[in-house]
Design goal:
Blueprint: E1 10-15, H1 20-35, E2 43-49, H2 55-69, H3 77-84, E3 87-91, H4 97-114, E4 119-124, H5 131-140, E5 150-154, H6 162-175, E6 181-183, H7 191-201, E7 215-223, H8 232-235, H9 240-257, H10 266-279, E8 292-295, E9 297-298, E10 300-302, E11 305-307, E12 325-330, E13 342-347, E14 354-361, E15 381-387, E16 391-399, E17 407-415, H11 416-420, H12 427-437, H13 446-465, E18 474-475, H14 482-489, E19 501-503, E20 510-512
Parallel strand pairs: 1-2, 1-4, 2-3, 4-5, 5-6, 7-13, 9-18
Antiparallel strand pairs: 7-14, 8-12, 10-11, 12-13, 14-15, 15-16, 16-17, 19-20
Helix pairs in contact: 1-2, 1-12, 5-6, 6-13, 9-10, 9-13, 10-13
């Protein structure tokens, strides 16, 4: 929601302060909030990590990250100096009680210096296995007591499966109230993802057709052209289904499918999302191949250069059965969506990096025009483009100029940057500001996290007990395994080429369209 004033005074304690997430995402986001005058007038950031490092070296390290990853590019000397004065570093062993006692002392000293109590945000930018240790340490140091001012931010993955997510939730709620726990899902911070709510519920023209009577099916695609890179060790224990579909794609599905909330109060919006997850048709474990397929990339060519197979990537097990591609067909059993298939797909080493939602409408009930006037015939489609360009596109049919009746497809287009003449904030900027405000609307609640795992549990169990015999089964630079095409063809559909791409006919060579900016 639109902020009217700056948040109250706040202290960020970042566990993993010298890590990659802090360097690439968190501090660049805080820097942009600082330049946009959204940070509190009184704020302080304490970074903690195992590495021995001086304050000066820590600030220099962060400076390099902001220069490399801020949406504004290189910093200005005066602005960086003013911002970096709010940072400090402490070497810490997170398994030691004295670490948390020292944190409590430093926070009390800063509040005494300010002469006021501040919101305290404990950001866990650490591997998931450390979350319980950190939570317990905070509780033992009595840093969890103030329910209004104390908040913890937990990064994904939230658990490895349903059982581990439930166990982690039980552990956290013993120490913190649910209102203090912010399970971050950075995809929900993207402007276009948030705008799905505005598009649906602030415009009366779409709601009457947003149902099974007019919509034939929905496709959600999140494609990545990169391999696993330096994340091989993590990814080989996760895979595409856990890494992307369980959180990112299911959250987008919830926004597309949810009923209208009575207000935009956090729990009301989250209730509607959980309702969607609860109504997703359970997949019978003995029929999983009818609803889900997996793939793993082999070697191939990307941008004219040969790239290795997944099994040749660093930190990947020699005979790994981890999927780098997953496609799932889901149904939502309620009055609005009964028997409308939702197709979700994601993968690495696909032809381009692109994310979008395609709402495919049904054909007209009666074809008035003879086939001779049709240059092509495709039903109406609404596209919500998430990346690389953020926008909304509507495809419909119009008459060609000139004598006679000739119909062809045209596109009505809206792009954020073109319309608003500004780059949207990064997702972490939005989410960090919401944490400071205590607004949990864009964050996952405990039941939401567990429900997401419940949806994919039959697939995980089936794949765990049925090893693939055909890996690798798609070439790097292609759109995934043939099995994915068969999956969607069973419903009489085919995968739609992302609207943001221009592709050569008969090849997998694609490039991102350039949007004209003014």
């Amino acid at each position: 929601m639109q902020k009217e004033t700056r948040p109250d005074a706040g202290i960020f304690v970042i566990f993993g302060g010298a890590g990659d997430l802090t360097w690439r995402k968190l501090v660049p986001a805080l820097y942009n909030l600082f330049l946009d005058h959204w940070l509190p007038e009184k704020f302080w950031v304490l970074g903690l990590d195992r590495a021995k490092m001086s304050n000066e070296r820590f600030v220099k390290h962060l400076h390099e990250g902001v220069d490399g990853f801020s949406r504004r590019g290189q910093t200005r000397k005066e602005q960086w100096k003013a911002f970096s004065e709010h940072f400090a570093y402490m070497q810490a062993d997170f398994s030691q009680a004295k670490t948390f006692a020292a944190i409590a002392e430093k926070l009390a000293q800063k509040e005494d210096q300010w002469g006021l109590k501040a919101n305290r945000i404990f950001y866990m930018a650490v591997p998931p296995r450390m979350i319980e240790t950190l939570s317990q340490g905070l509780a033992e140091a009595k840093l969890n007591r103030d329910r209004r001012a104390c908040r913890i931010v937990v990064e994904k993955p939230f658990g490895h499966d349903l059982d581990s997510a439930r166990a982690l939730n039980r552990s956290l709620v013993k120490l913190f109230d649910e209102s203090q726990i912010f399970r971050i899902e950075h995809y929900l911070g993207k402007e276009t993802v948030q705008n799905i709510l505005a598009f649906r519920f602030a415009n009366s023209i779409f709601e009457p057709i947003w149902n099974r009577h007019y919509i034939d099916h929905v496709q959600i695609t999140v494609a990545e052209n990169m391999g696993v890179g330096h994340r091989g060790d993590y990814y080989d224990h996760a895979g595409a289904l856990r890494d992307m579909i369980q959180n990112h794609l299911l959250q987008v599905l919830c926004l597309i499918a949810m009923e209208a909330p009575t207000s935009f109060e956090a729990n009301e919006v989250r209730n509607k999302k959980v309702d969607v997850l609860h109504t997703i048709r359970k997949i019978p474990e003995d029929r999983v191949p009818e609803y889900a397929v997996r793939g793993q990339y082999g070697e191939g060519f990307m941008g004219g250069e040969q790239v290795p197979a997944y099994l040749s990537e660093a930190d990947v097990a020699e005979n790994s059965c981890t999927e780098t591609f997953a496609a799932v067909k889901l149904f939502i059993d309620n009055w609005r969506w009964q028997d409308v298939p939702f197709y979700l797909r994601t993968g690495k080493r696909l032809p381009a990096k692109v994310s979008e939602v395609s709402i495919q409408f049904r054909q007209v009930p009666h074809q008035t025009f003879p086939s001779t006037v049709l240059l092509d015939w495709l039903s109406n489609r609404l596209v919500i483009a998430i990346q690389p360009e953020e926008g909304i596109l509507l495809r419909f049919r119009a008459k060609n100029p000139g004598p006679g009746m000739r119909l062809s497809q045209v596109m009505m287009q809206f792009y954020y940057q073109e319309a608003f003449k500004t780059r949207p904030p990064e997702a972490y900027e939005t989410l960090l500001l919401d944490v400071m405000e205590g607004d949990a609307t864009l964050f996952m609640r405990a039941d939401q996290a567990e429900s997401s795992w419940s949806v994919i549990r039959p697939i995980l169990d089936f794949w765990e007990n049925s090893k693939p015999a055909d890996f690798p089964n798609y070439q790097a630079g292609s759109w995934g395994p043939e099995a994915a095409d068969i999956l969607i063809a069973r419903g009489g559909h085919s995968w739609l080429m992302p609207t943001m791409l221009e592709c050569d006919e008969g090849t997998a060579t694609c490039q991102v369209k350039t949007v004209p900016h003014q």
